[in-house]
Structure formats: C-alpha cells, structure tokens
Predict the structure.
Amino acid sequence: MLNREHIRSLLARYIEIPGAKLLHKMGLTPNWITVIGFSICGVSALLVARGELFYGGLLFLVGAGLDLFDGGLARLTKTESPFGALLDSVLDRLGEASLLLGIAAYMLLSDFSKEKTFIYVMALILTLILSQSVSYLRARGEGLNAYTRTGLMTRPERVMILGFGLIIDHLVNVDFILWVLLVVSIISFFTLFQRIFAIRNILRKDD
C-alpha cells in the first residue's frame, strides 16, 4: 500500500531530481525558481479574478508545482541556505493566499446574490485561516525541534484540490469550487488538531 512517504520518494526519484537537473542546466537558482513559482501563482490569481477559472487553476498547479524543484535543486547544487528556506516558506504561503484572494475577487465581481456571495466569502476566510494555521503549526513545531508533516490536508493536498477544483468548476459550472473550499476548510480543521497533538507527543518524549 502506498503511503505519503512512499509517494514522496517516487516523486523525488522520477520528477523532482530529473526536473532539478534540467533547471540547473538552464542556469536557474533555487531562489529564482521560488520567485518564478510565486509569480505564476500571482498571474493565476489574476486570471481567476477575471473569471478564467480553467486557465487560472491550471496555472496555479504549474506555479505551486515548481515548489517540488527549488529544494531539490538546492540539495543538488549544495546551495541550501536559511534565507532560501525562509523565502520558500513565505512565498509558498503568499502564493496560496493570492489564489484565494483571486477567488474572492471573482465572487465579488460576479452577479451572484448577496447570500451566495456571503457564503463564498465566509468559506474563503475559513480556508485561508485554517490552511495558514496548518502551515504555521509545522513551522512552529520545527522551531521547537518537533518536526512533523502529520495531517490529512497539507500543502500538496490543498494545491491539488484547489487547482483541480477550479478546473472542474469551469467545466461543470455548478458552484463546485464552493464545495472544494468547504472540504479544504473542514479537513484543515481536523489537520490542525492532528498536528497539535503530534507536536505535543514529540515534545513530551523529549521531556
């Protein structure tokens, strides 16, 4: 049975490492890949705000997907640095937040009823708060020497669900993205507590 770590090792072997080698040959640095990925996410947010959900979702998957390669390239070229890790962490969160802002703009600029717009905005706020909290917990845990990637809804899952959710919403046109936001929010809520208890258990073992 495939678990997350097995999938991660397969991605590293067949996608991350070959991709990092290709990007290295192109003369790109890890930090540049991070910035390019964030910029693509920003463009995807603008497309979504304009109602181009299909292309916005597709571009978001590409931009966020570049996150696979910056760390791999840093390890390949032995250029890992605290600043690179910081830049990657900050721009990852801003890229995700920019997409949610794009969805909010799309909702507010569309001819939806006040009730429907209110529901969308509340779902977006919940998604933003909970997803950022999940990411913060991992970073805070690392600051306490409690390293964990525990949880059902981590960043890769959110990226896939949000990106494909926008694409599917464009194709079926039945407010699919609202259900996506609710699913991400609910599972992120449970993930939040999964990480809290995981970090607590690690800290207790260290006492």
In short: Residues 44 and 56 are 4 Å apart (CA to CA).
